[in-house]
Q: What sequence folds into this?
């Protein structure tokens, strides 16, 4: 099964409606869902962000958006580019925190940045979830300090859903926590499983520990200490996974520390990008190759889309009190629209509630 | 510049002859070079190993080979497949250590395995270097305990030369040491630089620390402690390298702990393999695609060869008293022949001597 994020939303969107039968406060009622958007986060803000919001409003009937940023600039950009701001409100924030600035600035010189104001609005229940394409470090800082961690969560994780040969998998953690302890990895596994089950519709998600061999005792001290904890847990733990198997069907949730996860995330992107460039190079090499390329172009594009990480829009932050969804920094309108869709599923399926319950249960044990 | 291992050998083979002018005991003299080969190591032993040895003997005038394994089986296999054993001797070893057996068995029940006997022969100067395609763990165990570490070397590293967009890079360590300390990473950097300079002909190799961001203070505690040590060193340290950049031209020696290195090595292979399968899938999708594929097939194969890790034959073990070269476990004849060629360069350019000198110098400082 291979689904684009869009198809996923339709697929799983219908599923939750059947599954949850109004248990969710947002479900079955007339209440709109309000997503808070950092209009000035990411490389292509505000234009592509606003375009993406417009697309999402058209696509999802129950969506309202609270745009955060300079009211003047938002209105100007919308006017210049004929973007409709229907069903969108604006919350004024004069500043922007850049990718280059230290995340700490969010609590110091950049308290009035669009990101800080947006996350405060989220903490104050002015919306149901947040989406932003700005600095990952600053978003993590804000998610942890402004929105706050779920009780019992040692450290929140950034957990992108990524493409594999067929379908997708979650990488948890992908960079929030460079130094980890075994208990943290077990929490990542729990939180990732809940998200994959509730949002991505994977029944009883298979959890794998990213490691350098498949035998139970393989790996460094972090892995050898984590392995028995995962084995004892109630999770569907399928053991150690070698990175060679990650692009195939090794498991649904790849659990790792944030250092290794970030290496995996970026190498995945790097190798795929380099190889696609090589393939393009072959296609451009001669006139006959160019002609051959034109024949397979459409199928090649479809394939490239399947393996494009942007299809899944970005990464949820797991372990935070409210849904925070990080869109790719280089998001264009379609990717940002996908990210909003994923954030809506994050809200709808009450992942935060499920994680809260699961960890409370873990504490009692 | 992009060279296959074969071209590299020709290219750099000529270079060392000019550069070293007889300084090396093997150079300019009539003395043959003798490479010790584990005839029963790897998935395709002994057939492909023997074929590879035959190819190498034909290719390199000054080469002699000491085959280690069951004399009976070697002769039988050679006879059945019409393989010439010219310029090869056989050293009897009745046993074989399998990929599944624990490396410790090399010192216990498998003292008479082809691998153990071969490494003892190397330690006893019965040859100039060793090549084997058997278990990496067992080879490491034998290299460390039978051949021994160079004085001052904390831990030997397994350091494959890998393909990138254009050319190659070294990954050091790629799996010998799961848990590392900062001083070990600095040694990996030194040893890797020497190999890249002496064997691969890279002038003043650029050393990069595999990390999750480019800023000096990025990473986990191992990285933040290693960074200043590398910066202080005499190495050509170019700073932190994100894994996204590894397939491009980030640096010549990627330094990392063996856990992360093994994750990088296998993910590199996994993502490239999965993507090439996807491309093949597109080519096979329809008759018109098949026809188009036939047009680009030759160029596609040339490209695939450029990015094939097997082109470089395997990985040297750095920090061991004598040259030990690990060929890929799935080596076929050509790959194994390449590995022998790389091992010859490892011997010729006296990498062991240079590492010994560099570490002795480091001790004095």
A:
């Amino acid at each position: 099964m291979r689904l684009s994020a869009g198809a996923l939303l339709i697929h799983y969107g219908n599923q939750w409606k059947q599954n949850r039968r109004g248990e969710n406060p947002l479900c079955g009622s007339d209440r709109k869902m309000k997503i808070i958007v950092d209009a000035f986060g990411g490389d292509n803000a505000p234009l592509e962000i606003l375009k993406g919001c417009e697309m999402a409003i058209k696509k999802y009937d129950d969506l309202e958006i609270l745009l955060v940023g300079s009211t003047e600039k938002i209105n100007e950009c919308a006017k210049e580019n004929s973007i409709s701001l229907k069903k969108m409100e604006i919350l004024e924030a004069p500043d922007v925190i850049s990718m280059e600035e230290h995340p700490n600035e969010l609590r110091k010189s950049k308290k009035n940045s669009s990101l800080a104001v947006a996350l405060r609005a989220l903490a104050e229940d002015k919306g149901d979830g947040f989406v932003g394409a700005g600095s990952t470090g600053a978003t993590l800082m804000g998610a942890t300090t402004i929105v706050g961690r779920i009780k019992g969560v040692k450290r929140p994780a950034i957990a992108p859903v990524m493409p594999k040969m067929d379908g997708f998998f979650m990488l948890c953690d992908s960079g929030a926590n460079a130094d980890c302890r075994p208990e943290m990895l077990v929490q990542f596994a729990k939180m990732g499983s809940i998200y994959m089950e509730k949002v991505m519709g994977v029944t009883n998600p298979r959890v794998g520990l990213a490691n350098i061999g498949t035998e139970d005792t393989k790996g460094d001290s972090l892995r050898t200490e984590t392995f028995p904890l995962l084995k004892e847990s109630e999770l569907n733990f399928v053991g150690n996974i070698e990175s060679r198997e990650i692009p195939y069907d090794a498991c649904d949730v790849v659990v790792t520390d944030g250092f290794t996860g970030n290496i995996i995330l970026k190498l995945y992107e790097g190798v795929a990008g380099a190889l696609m460039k090589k393939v393009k190079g072959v296609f451009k090499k001669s006139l006959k190759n160019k002609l051959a390329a034109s024949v397979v172009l459409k199928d090649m594009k479809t394939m490239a889309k399947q393996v494009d990480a942007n299809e899944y829009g970005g990464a949820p932050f797991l372990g935070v009190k409210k849904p925070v969804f990080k869109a790719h920094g280089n998001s264009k309108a379609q990717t940002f629209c996908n990210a909003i869709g994923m954030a809506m599923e994050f809200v709808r399926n009450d992942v935060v509630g499920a994680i809260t319950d699961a960890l409370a249960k873990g504490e009692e044990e």
